């Protein structure tokens, strides 16, 4: 079954829904680690960061704090978890991460364009589950 799971989301509701989805489908004892992935779209906000003088690292971790509720949920189930923060293009970063690290499943709960989702699914080196927005 799925032991190492990568969850790509950008808000608390989607991260929690992804966690609940995977823990309901997979027996919890078989899950070894869930990694929350936040990709900072630097091309969209780089100018703003430079103008405001905001330190990039502070902005990255401030933006990725949304996973805390999902982490508390996993703590109750005694499932290990971690947070991975990257900068760049989502499909390229996911391709690199799934190529170099061993993930059994990627869950994307982020509202992306159909083209981006297709690119992520094609480049990921593991099965991909796309959670639809309700």
Automatic annotation (TrEMBL):
Start and end residues of each UspA domain: 1-131
Pfam families named in the record: Usp
Protein's UniProt name: UspA domain-containing protein
């Amino acid at each position: 079954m799925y032991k190492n799971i990568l969850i790509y989301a950008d808000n608390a509701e989607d991260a929690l829904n992804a966690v609940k989805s995977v823990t309901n489908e997979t027996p919890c004892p078989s899950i070894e680690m869930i990694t929350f992935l936040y990709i900072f779209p630097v091309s969209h906000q780089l100018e703003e960061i430079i103008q405001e003088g905001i330190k990039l690292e502070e902005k990255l971790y401030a933006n990725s704090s949304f996973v805390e509720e999902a982490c508390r949920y996993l703590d109750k189930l005694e499932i290990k978890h971690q947070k991975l923060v990257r900068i760049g293009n989502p499909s390229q970063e996911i391709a690199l991460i799934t190529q170099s690290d061993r993930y059994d499943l990627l869950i994307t709960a982020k509202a992306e364009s159909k083209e981006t989702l297709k690119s992520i699914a094609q480049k990921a080196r593991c099965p991909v589950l796309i959670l639809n927005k309700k």
